[in-house]
Amino acid sequence: MIIAIALIGLIGILSVLLYLWHRRWLDAVLAASAAAALALLAGGLTLPGEAGSTLAIDSNKPPVSLKGVRALTLDGDGLRAAQWQDLPARPLAWTPPQAGTLRLAFPRRLPLGRMFALTVKRSGISNNSAPARLQLLAENGQVLGEASGTGELTVTWLPPLAETLELKARLLGEKDKLLAEGPVPVVVEETRPLAVRGRFSAPSFDLRVLNEVLANSRAVIDWQVALGKTVTRSETAREKIDKPDLLVVDAAWFERAAGPTRAALLEQVGQGAALLVLGANANDAAVWSRTLSLNLQAQPADKLTGGPLTLPVAPLNPATRNAGAWAGSDSAVWARQWGKGRIGWLGAGDWHRHAIAEPRALALWWQGVLDTLGVERVDDVSWLDPAEMPLPGQRLEVCALGVRGNVTFPDLGQSLAWQRRSDRVDASCVAVWPKQAGWLRMQTQGSKPRITPIIGQVYVHAPGDWPQWQAFEKREATARYAARTPAAMTPSERMLPPWPFAILFAFAMLALWWRERR
Fold it and tell me: pLDDT tens digits for 65-101?
């Protein structure tokens, strides 16, 4: 910009000097005027004053348009994310309130057999470091779980049935003072049974308990245990298993297996299956180093694992938590990627000792083992949790994976076409405006053809539900909006309109052309 203005000035000075040399006084004035107008047009001259107005936003009444608005001011918690997305970027003057907020984290949809966990994070409510109690209540008021302490609180509960629930949470402070309470909606869903294929070298109490844990989770089990060199006890699956979700072997079976058998097993893993090796009876460290690049070392006989269950470690285990491609966990499981699947080494045993005294803790421990291994059952359609708390009269974005065609909302009398979103990978979304609080039902078709539609539902909160949580979401959304706005123009300056300089330049140049032609 500076170079362009300098060139304009240089050409203008030379033109003026040339006209003065020839004593053409009026032409010199016109040349000077044209050069000055062009320089001012390129330079963008500013004058004292403000460009546009400053709008004070009411958190309860967001503006429809920001036309003619230069900047924004705001008091209070701010607007919801959907409301900020409808407004163009403007500089925002806002100081977050000091009043306390809550942040709730819990799954809106939960497979049956999984532990439900509700986490509440406090900020400035009756002092975050002060002791408090978090209660999870059933629809009839029965206490399902309770947690107490300071800072972040988490309460857990294991749903016994697949059903739609509207639970309730209550946060109590000192002397049982009610700090906050509100609904906690969750849909507990039936899931496709896990397909498990197991091959073992000898029977054991651990295998029997593992079989019971899997059977209690409704898994489809194909189980073979060698009782001798020629005798094998088999448990045939109740339905045909074409592609198992989980392969389980003990270390001794893998060590004794022939080369082609091992290769076929690892080929299945490479195509996407998960393989869990029970390492308690491992004897040949060289086999594991050669086939799976797993370096095992002898462990002390009295060494125990950490985590929720204390178990004796396997005789051979990796020496460190991270061993090359293998990454360890608190459950004494080391896992690695193998093609499209994963392989896990369980370096602990004697979990059968907890089967009678702590059956629930044992089931949860096994769930953690499978989670570490990455075992999951993917449904044809997955509904995504809303980005913010759904409220009546506010725009709600409903997104799902594996859907096609339209989605119908019977309560709203609407049928909308799914639309892809660039900011949500592989997801399709629609926007609706719920009319009232409660469960909003929806139905659609999945990517795979089926006769009956796929039913889903999302809970719409009442406007008075969890005001501290709503305040937290508004402050987070307002902070994101303030971060994406451009730098504010200096309040005491405004840009001069360019059109007067353009007209002056054009008039001077036309006058010079007319005088030259005369």
Answer: 787 777 888 888 899 998 888 888 888 888 888 888 9
CATH of the domain at 406: 2.60.40
3-state secondary structure of 85: helix
Question: Do 341 and 204 reside in the same domain of the chain?
Answer: yes
Helix, strand or coil, per DSSP, at residue 361 = helix
Closest CA to 210 of 18, 355, 403: 355
Q: What are phi and psi of 210, to 5 degrees?
A: -60, -40
Helices 25-43/499-517 angle, 10° precision? 150
What is the Cα–Cα distance from 82 to 393, expressed in whole angstroms?
A: 12
Q: How many angstroms separate the CA atoms of 294 and 336, rounded?
A: 10
What's the token pair of residue 510?
């036309």
Same domain, 247 and 326: yes
Those residues whose C-beta lies under 8 Å from the C-beta of residue 448, and which sit 6 or more positions away, are 380, 402
Quickly list DSSP for 393-448: TS-EEEEEESEEEEEEETTTTEEEE-EE-TTSTTEEEEEE---SSEEEEEEEEESS
pLDDT tens string 366-380: 888 888 888 776 667
- Structure tokens that stand for 100 in this block: 């306390």
pLDDT, tens digit (0-9, with 9 covering 90-100), for 175-190: 889 999 999 999 998 8
Tokens representing 377 are: 């059952």
The residue count of the chain comes to 518
**Beta carbons of 147 and 170 less than 8 angstroms apart:** no
The bridge status of strand 403-409 relative to strand 438-446 is antiparallel
Is there a single domain that holds both residue 223 and residue 329?
Answer: yes
Token digits for 17? 């000097």
Cα 338 to Cα 266: distance, rounded to the nearest angstrom = 8
For 293, the domain range is 195-373
Count of the separate structural domains present in the chain: 4
CA distance 94 to 63: 16
Contact present, 485 and 91 (Cβ < 8 Å)? yes
Q: Please count the helices (runs of H) and the strands (runs of E) in the chain.
A: 10, 32
β-pair type (341-346, 274-278) = parallel
Of 419, 426, 384, which is closest to residue 402 (Cα–Cα)? 426
What is the H or E stretch that residue 260 is in?
helix 259-270
The verdict on 322 and 418 lying in the same domain is no
Per residue in 324-336, pLDDT (tens digit) is 889 888 778 999 9
Q: Specify the 3-state DSSP secondary structure of 153.
A: strand
Provide the token pair at 462: 């009442």
| 3-class secondary-structure state, position 479 | helix
Q: Reduced to 3 states, what is the DSSP secondary structure of residue 454?
A: strand
For residue 400 the two structure tokens come to 């799902």
The sheet that has 246-250: what strands, in order across it?
Answer: 232-235, 220-226, 195-200, 246-250, 274-278, 341-346, 333-338, 326-328, 322-323
- The whole-model pTM stands at 0.71
